[in-house]
Amino acid sequence: MNTIHSIERIYNIREKEMNEAQAQYQRAIDYFEEQATELFQLLKKKETLQERFDNRLKGRVTITYIHAAHDSIQRIEKEEKALQTKVHQARVNMKQKENQLKVAHLEMKKMEKLIQLKKEELKEFAKKKEAEFMDEISMQQYFRTR
Asked: Which segments does the entry list as coiled coil (predicted)?
């Protein structure tokens, strides 16, 4: 019986670890989504700016406008590269957290199985002791009646 309580304590620890891993994984997902959304918005902004620039080039434009538009596009491209790096790092972190969650879940399932096996062993032991006790009573009754 003591063994089951010890295993249950370990199970509770594993469950807490899994819950923490789940929370970390969710935070990683949220951060990834945030970064990916920011990148998406930046790409939309860049596309709009390029379309506007291309449309303006069909007409008369000043050299100052061309320089300003070019600078804006370059600035956005720098931001894009930085965000792509953040998105990639967030994706890698998210995958690591997912793997940690899988490991924590697996460890918890192992503990569940171990508890189940120990309880079954305990039941079998109790049945065996009960059968031995009943045999002993039967033998005592048999010898008393003789």
From this structure: 73-128
